[in-house]
TrEMBL record:
It comes from Balaenoptera physalus. SUPFAM superfamilies: Sema domain (SSF101912). SMART domains: Sema (SM00630). It holds the Pfam family Sema. It is found in: Secreted. GO terms for biological process: axon guidance; neural crest cell migration; positive regulation of cell migration; semaphorin-plexin signaling pathway. Keywords: Developmental protein, Differentiation, Glycoprotein, Neurogenesis, Secreted, Signal. Residues 3-372 form the Sema domain. GO terms for cellular component: extracellular space; plasma membrane. This is Sema domain-containing protein. One of its GO terms (molecular function) is chemorepellent activity. The keyword Methyltransferase does not apply.
Length: 372
């Protein structure tokens, strides 16, 4: 008996596992992806991609022939998977519509394929390790939240592409996310994943005279100007436009207290793929999702694994805050358009002068350094 066979027998003896097979013939099960958002496990094999119910894998799976050895399965967005196969020694990749929710019962491969060279091995006997890179991180800071050090949060500043159901990129949004430094994941759900992760949109825009807003979508750099009171900390950000027609840079300044107010505010909720985001009006579980264990509001909880199941489920389904974060006076501090350069870096210092105290901004570009 081989070590692998012995391990399988010992696992069956624990009676904590379930057996599944699509066929009596070997189908080369080798790659899988667990999707806790929809309670599914996606399994890649020869000629098939399987969608199994996490809670009952013996249910008849949703499947679709793919005609090759599937070696890559990655979540692309809330509705699609990105899958690649060996393609008879000519790797191919495509998108698979899994639906937005598990009850949608959608499992359909896109008719259009693209080359999988460099993403998937052409040899089906070679194992493939893959990762899907989506957010573009800019900066991160640990910031206190109250007097209890266990309530401190790690704030991530990043930008992400938003896509519609047809996978065509609509726009880039600048975002702030925060987690607890002592987040160790959930016990039954979100295992080895963040259970305190929340994010909100960071807005830097100007309003034209005729009404429409011009957004500086792409966050380039962040600088925190700290004070003795963390709530009065100022967050300076450099933003640029993603438009190929209108080019420019802007500096926006935010009160940390305004950022924390948004994270303590309503959660975004969406009834379905064709619905707009609304403010969640239902019951919010206790402790409030995003709260750190061992802090002022949860002194008896030592770890995120002690969070109730409804807290973990809620934050898994509602990671986005409903309100966006706007700068002081709801407009940029500095705007530069029509130039052959853009701002890329920022640093800020406090300077005492005879007529008062000033904040001096050092703005870096690809060509020279200026101060304002």
């Amino acid at each position: 008996m081989t070590g692998l066979t012995r391990a399988a027998q010992e696992l069956r003896e624990t009676k904590t596992s379930e057996y599944f097979s699509l066929s009596h013939h070997p189908l080369d099960y080798r790659i899988l992806l667990m999707d806790e958002d929809q309670d599914r496990i996606y399994v890649g094999s020869k000629d098939h991609i399987l969608s199994l119910n996490i809670n009952n894998i013996s249910q008849e799976p949703l499947s679709h022939g793919c005609g090759n050895f599937v070696r890559v399965i990655q979540a692309f967005n809330r509705t699609h998977l990105y899958v690649c196969g060996s393609g008879a020694f000519s790797p191919v990749c495509t998108y698979l519509n899994r639906g937005r929710r598990s009850e949608d019962q959608v499992f359909m491969i896109d008719s259009k394929c693209e080359s999988g060279k460099g993403r998937c091995s052409f040899n089906p006997n070679v194992n493939t390790v893959s990762v899907m890179i989506k957010p573009m991180f800019v900066d991160a800071h640990v910031i206190p939240d109250g007097t209890d050090p266990n309530d401190a949060k790690v704030y991530f500043f990043f930008k992400e592409k938003l896509t519609d159901n047809s996978r065509s990129t609509k726009q880039i949004h600048s975002m702030i996310a925060r987690i607890c430094p002592n987040d160790t994941g959930g016990l039954r759900s979100l295992v080895n994943k963040w259970t305190t992760f929340l994010k909100a949109r960071l807005v830097c825009s100007v309003t034209d005279e005729d009404g429409p807003e011009t957004h500086f979508d792409e966050l380039e750099d962040v600088f925190l100007l700290e004070t003795d009171n963390p709530r009065t900390t100022l967050v300076y950000g450099i933003f640029t436009t993603s438009s190929s027609v209108f080019k420019g840079s802007a500096v926006c300044v935010y009160h940390l207290s305004d950022i924390q107010t948004v994270f303590n505010g309503p959660f975004a909720h969406k009834e379905g793929p064709n619905h707009q985001l609304i403010s969640y009006q239902g019951r919010i579980p206790y402790p409030r999702p995003g709260t750190c264990p061992g802090g002022a509001f949860t002194p008896n909880m030592r770890t995120t694994k002690e969070f109730p199941d409804d807290v973990v489920t809620f934050i898994r389904n509602h990671p986005l805050m409903y309100n966006s974060i706007y700068p002081i006076h709801r407009r940029p501090l500095i705007v530069r358009t029509g130039t052959d350069y853009k701002y890329t870096k920022i640093a800020v210092d406090r300077v005492n002068a005879a007529d008062g105290r000033y904040h001096v901004l050092f703005l870096g570009t690809g060509k020279y350094l200026s101060s304002n």
